[in-house]
Every structure is written in structure tokens, then in C-alpha cells.
């Protein structure tokens, strides 16, 4: 494997963890873990855990629900790329493969090939390739289990999370090779595309899970070394492969989420300067390019699910801004040359989300206002506490999203 992106800083962090041993299983270890979380607000987690310990009824209820979900995962079968029935073009089942969601057989052709695009309409045939679903389930399970461990301290949750991560990423018989050469293939057209990289956009849930269970008895130097190596190899592929390079210059949500992944993995492997450089570049390559003066995102508005994609891309930008905080780059208060910024982009979406006006752009399915709850929680801390009240308003309409309050201020 290519080890060039497993940096000296990462090795030093691992060595310190080994030397400190059980001494690291303390509040100090928690603080170090919390400061680098990508898909949760670390300071908020700390506050919520204190409330849970003190018996705050609302937080206790949320943690009990989290525990119930985590308990269901304790007996979950492991996830792996080798479970799929199909074999990738490489002949190696350890290679991830998926099919582009919006591509369908051409009914004017006897064999349906090459497939044709129907934007926003998911071909159910895609589900026959199970890697995408299993990886998504792994990411969500890792998040649930690691947070359950953080809030309750119960080792069983950390143990299960570590087991799932080892099977997907490290075990010789089940591991995924660290690349996406065969992501989002199109029958009759291509065996894989760079835009398949969007399917790993939540890898930060995995690095967050590792951060949260490092203080547990379930984690050890061998697992740490293996995860550092795998993430380093995948980062190397993102940065150097043809598909990775193509995705890095993609002009819409694909480019945004490429940056999220690469910056996250750079931080995970101890390469803060690389992450910092990417975040500085994002001002021009993402925000300047993607935002109109009023906060609209024209590249996402061109889609048939324009609200969904605007919400998705904005969450990617919010995530970049959160990572920027970790390396001293302020995207929260950056104004583009046309006067746009992240706050305006959020405000542009709110009237439709709150039912105050119709969404004026193409949307072939109902909008999902609840997807803005994390954005609002984050904005309540960065911009204006009033956003928390808006988040609460949506939570009343979508109580199934109540668990968001364990991740974000609101």
C-alpha cells in the first residue's frame, strides 16, 4: 500500500496514544477527540453529556433513544464490499462498485444500451449492487455506536463500532480496497466515473467514530495504524488518480464534497497544511463559483431536485467552514466578490422550508425541510441564536429528527 500520506505527525499521535495508554482514557482524551469532529459539534456534545450526567430529562430521553438504536446494532451483521453478487471489472470483489442512480435502459434499443439519463429519477436496478447501501449503513452505524459510547461510556458500543470498522477497512478477507475506480458506472458507457466519489462524502462519520472510541478498551494501536494507512491511501487516490482529479474540479456539489473528504482525511492523517490550503482555495473554487449575490446556488437550481441539491451542497459548504475553523480559515464570514456568503445561502432556502412561500425552482418531488435542521443548529452558534428557534420549529414538525440535538446546538 502507498504510505506517503500517513504523515510523521500521525505516527507521533499514535506513539503518544500507546505511551499514555490508560491515562488517555480521560477527559483530556475526550477534549482532543471532540475538537476535530466533522459531523458533530464537539463542544455541544460535551455540554449535552454534562446535562445527561446531571439527569436533564430532555437529554436523558434523547440518549435513551440513541441507546435503543445502538442496542439494535449490537447484533447487526457486518458490512463488506465482498457481499455483492457481482464482480467488478478488475475481477477483485474487494473493489467498490456502484451504478449511477439516474441512468436507465434506452427503450428504443433492443438491449437498452447505452443507458440514458433521467435526472432525479432513481433506477431501482442500482440497488442490486449492494456496496453503496452497505457503506451507507456502516457510516450510520459507526456514528450511532460511537456516539452511544461517548454519552454512556458503555464499552459494548465501542467494541461493536471497532468490529464493524475492522471488517470493512482492514480484515484481509473483507476489506475494501482504498479507491473508487468503479463508482457510479453507466451500463454501455463507462465502468466508473469520478463523480462516484460523492458516495464517500460521509467518510467523516468514520473518522469521527474513530475519534470518539479511541479512549475505549476496544481500540488499539493496530487498529489505529490500519485506519491511518487506509485513509492515507484513499486520500492519495483522491489527489493523484484521474477520477480524483476530475472530481476535484467538478463545479457543483461534487466539487464541494470532494473538498470535504480530502480535507477531512488530511486532518485525520496529520496533514493540517494540506487541509488549510484546500480550505483557502475553497473560497474561490467553491463559494465564488457556486453562490449568487442573493445566496442562490445556480448549479444546484439547474437540477430537477433543486431544493434537495441546494440543501446538500450548502451542508457541504457548512462542513468545509467547520473544518476551516480547525485550521484557521474563516469561511463563515467570507464574502464572495458579488456579496454572497453562507448565511445568505441558508436564508435563501428558509422561506420555502418554513412554508412561507413556494419553492420557485424545478422540484419533481416534495421538498424536505427537515434536512435543514443541522444547518440551522450550526448557524445558531455561528451567526444568530435565533436560528435555533427555527430549528425547533422544524423539529416539532419532524420529531423523528429529534436526535439532531445530540449533534448540534438547537
What does this structure look like?
It is built from 16 helices and 4 strands. It has 410 residues and is mostly helical. The strands form 2 sheets. The chain has a two-stranded parallel ribbon with strand order 1-4. The longest helix has 22 residues, at 131-152. It holds the Pfam family Alginate_lyase.
Short description:
One of its GO terms (molecular function) is lyase activity. The chain is mainly alpha-helical. It is about 55% helix and about 5% strand.
Percent strand = under 5%
| Name given to the CATH architecture of the largest domain | Alpha/alpha barrel
Number of domains: 2
The CATH class of the largest domain: Mainly Alpha
What percent of residues adopt helix (DSSP H or I)?
40-55%
Taking the sheet with the most strands, its summary is: 2 strands, parallel
Radius of gyration: 21 Å
Indicate the low-confidence ranges by residue numbers: 1-6, 15-29
Number of strands: 4
Question: Oligomeric status of the shown chains?
Answer: single chain
| Bulk shape | globular
Distance between the termini: 43 Å
Protein name: Alginate lyase domain-containing protein
Pfam families: Alginate_lyase
GO molecular function, one term: lyase activity
Signal peptide: 1-29
